[in-house]
């Protein structure tokens, strides 16, 4: 689960601004959050321009402006595609010495946040290994990288940190076969979705390594079996990096609504933090 706090945007072209919240603070980008928020903006009539069969919603995320295209038949919204910020393969074959796991080699790729991408074979595991084993191995790798390896975004210092790590089935070469992955982010949160920003970073990695061409679509599957489709759509630059705009497509669903109440004399209701 993810939280989205809606805020007025400071970019004039944006329909809405959003801060995504996780278990340790905020996220620079959340692709599955963008998919759900795109639908919400259409269904609540909040998008600037409601058009059929597709409405464009511009969402200012912490990583920058993301364009969501929401299927809309005039009554109900459907699948959402989004175009993320310029994404790029940042570093290849980075070695990290992870306590209890030894030397692990990862690629680092930016897809709205910096992701370490690591095939499950590095841990002598496969992507169907238990969620707790994945969480422990990938979480330890991410935490070690945060200590040992510094990343720098060419334009934004506030994005210059290791946000997440993704364990993959290693199927990086283009094929029509589904490729599976699992993202561990923030304070060892495990993503039930294929991870929109992670999938963006995987396409940027594959594009940077010459494994996929513009317009080729891949299907990414999460540990729950949920899928997103993604493809590189345009070559761009980000600072000196050869970057790519990635389109990700998926579905989000409503699960309920709730109302929070804060009474004047409820001290705990103002929030608390346990360490
Ligand atoms: O879909 C996404 O992009 C998010 N899922 C968990 C981590 C990422 O922020």
From TrEMBL:
The keyword Lyase applies. The keyword Glycosyltransferase does not apply. One of its GO terms (molecular function) is trans-L-3-hydroxyproline dehydratase activity. Its EC number is 4.2.1.77. It comes from the Eukaryota. Gene3D superfamilies: Diaminopimelate Epimerase, Chain A, domain 1. It catalyses: trans-3-hydroxy-L-proline = 1-pyrroline-2-carboxylate + H2O. Pfam families: Pro_racemase (PF05544). Keywords: Lyase. InterPro entries: Pro_racemase_fam. Belongs to the proline racemase family. This is trans-L-3-hydroxyproline dehydratase. It comes from Mytilus edulis.
């Amino acid at each position: 689960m993810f939280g989205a706090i809606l805020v007025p945007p400071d970019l004039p072209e944006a329909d809405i601004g959003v801060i995504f919240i996780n278990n340790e603070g905020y996220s620079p980008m959340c692709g599955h959050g963008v998919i759900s928020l795109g639908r919400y903006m259409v269904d609540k009539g909040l998008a600037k321009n409601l058009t059929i069969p597709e409405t464009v919603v511009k969402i200012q995320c912490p990583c920058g402006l993301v364009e969501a295209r929401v299927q809309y038949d005039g009554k109900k919204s459907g699948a959402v595609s989004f175009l993320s910020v310029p994404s790029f393969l940042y570093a290849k074959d980075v070695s990290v010495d992870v306590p209890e796991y030894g030397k692990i080699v990862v690629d680092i790729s930016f897809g709205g946040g910096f992701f370490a991408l690591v095939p499950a074979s590095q841990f002598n595991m496969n992507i169907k290994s238990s969620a707790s084993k994945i969480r422990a191995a990938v979480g330890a790798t991410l935490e070690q990288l945060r200590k040992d390896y510094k990343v720098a975004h060419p334009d934004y210092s506030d994005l210059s940190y290791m946000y997440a790590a993704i364990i993959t089935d290693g199927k990086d070469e283009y094929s029509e076969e589904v490729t599976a992955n699992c993202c561990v982010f923030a304070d060892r949160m495990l993503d039930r979705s294929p991870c929109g920003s992670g999938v963006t970073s995987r396409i940027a990695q594959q594009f940077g390594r010459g494994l996929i061409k513009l317009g080729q679509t891949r299907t990414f599957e999460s540990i729950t079996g949920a899928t997103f489709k993604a493809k590189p759509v345009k070559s761009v630059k980000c600072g000196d990096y050869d970057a790519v705009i990635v389109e990700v497509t998926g579905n989000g669903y409503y699960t309920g609504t709730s109302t929070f109440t804060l009474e004047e004399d409820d001290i705990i209701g103002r929030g608390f933090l346990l360490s």
